[in-house]
Amino acid sequence: MMRNNEKDKFMWRATKLCATLLFALFSFLYLYCMQADLLACFQYILSDGLTSYSPLVGGLIITLLLVFLGELLAYACSLPTPFVALSYFPSAVLLAVISGGTPKSDGIGFAASGWTWVAVTAVVVGVCMLLLRKYASYIVQDKYRYTDSWPNALLFFLMFAFVGKVGNTNDRLHYQLKAESLLNDECYDEILEMRPGSTGMSPAFHAIRALALSQDQRLGEELFRARGLSGSSDLLVSEHEFLSCDSLEYKFYDFWGARPGKHLQQNPELFFQIILERNLCDSTRRKEVQDLYLSSLLLDRKIDQFASSVVKYYPLNDSLPRHYREALILYKRIRTAPVCVYENESLEENYNDYLTMSRNKVSAQEVQNKIRQSFGRTYWYYYNYR
């Protein structure tokens, strides 16, 4: 009998150790890899910018505190071996709450649906823990006590799914916060390496990406490779759009030597034009502002104004950035008396293929899908379909 008790204690401790390691690993990776930028934003908001968040140190400290809470409950509740994982449920709830908010201009918000999930699940699990503690001998039979680990595995799966459901996993928000962090560190190459895919991006993300492209002299080559562009407003960041640091707005506009007022915020084309005409920017950044001005015209589909402006800054040859060449080919085709003519045989053939595909006699949605697959990163697609 004593030998069986020793075996029971050994199996309980071994199971608890495995549960501790599994929860600690999940918690740290979740905080460090997935929620680091969000928690940094929360700390900036809560401390009014007086302190900063370290992903490594913060992830370790939070994980240690959550594991310590789970350890206390494991010994206090003395749940049977197959249900030891339940001791870490309160820690999972705290992990979800910590990462479940949404940064706003006036603080941190938490969706009502998130609180509902937390409350309902906490009540259900709490009742289960009380029943298990009181009636464990009836629920768990001796023959299953040591051999079955699936209840713990299932409980951890449900807890981790719960954290993922309640925690803030909004791709749009996370991409913006990551881009803001990289902008603050002036890591422009890393911003350009971000690949959001088909997810709709926030205007602030598009503005940061455009700034990084202009820094690398690639704005005219790659601006329209991103999805979700809606107009020239995507080149500027309005007040309170930056979430993780208020000073980013000053760093963002410092590159151009001017900051738009409320009126110019709605008219990026005029803003960049004023900078060029009044020589407000540093001479080394003039070319970047020129590309931003030309790109603002293309984003607003002001193709006639673009055609008359581009000749002021670029010779009409193959040294033109890719999207400018595409715009001039389109302009030549849709105007009977173009103010400038750009010739490129290869690009003409591509545009003919684009027109042929667009005239396909199938449903409009099917045509658009096919064109997006072949020409989704061209200015032609943006001009006609976005």
Strand content: under 5%
Secondary-structure class? mainly alpha
Strand arrangement, major sheet: 1-2
Q: Compute the average pLDDT.
A: 83
The total of beta strands comes to 2
Query: How many DSSP H or I helices?
Result: 19
Q: In whole angstroms, how far apart are the ends? A: 75 Å
The percent of residues in helical segments reads 55-70%
Unreliable stretches (pLDDT < 50, length at least 5) are: 141-147
- The run of helices and strands is HHHHEEHHHHHHHHHHHHHHH
What Rg, in angstroms, do the CA atoms define? 29 Å
Question: What is the topology?
Answer:
Elements: H1 2-34, H2 36-46, H3 55-77, H4 89-98, E1 102-104, E2 107-109, H5 112-139, H6 150-166, H7 171-184, H8 188-193, H9 203-215, H10 219-222, H11 248-254, H12 262-265, H13 268-278, H14 286-299, H15 303-313, H16 322-334, H17 345-358, H18 364-375, H19 379-385
Antiparallel strand pairs: 1-2
Helix pairs in contact: 1-2, 1-3, 3-4, 4-5, 4-6, 7-9, 13-14, 14-15, 15-16
Structure in words:
It is a single chain. By secondary structure, the protein is mainly α. Helix content is 65%, strand content 2%. It is built from 19 helices and 2 strands. It has helices spanning 2-34, 36-46, 55-77, 89-98, 112-139, 150-166, 171-184, 188-193, 203-215, 219-222, 248-254, 262-265, 268-278, 286-299, 303-313, 322-334, 345-358, 364-375, 379-385; strands spanning 102-104, 107-109. A two-stranded antiparallel sheet has the order 1-2. A hairpin with a 2-residue loop joins strand 1 (102-104) and strand 2. It is elongated and about 95 Å long.
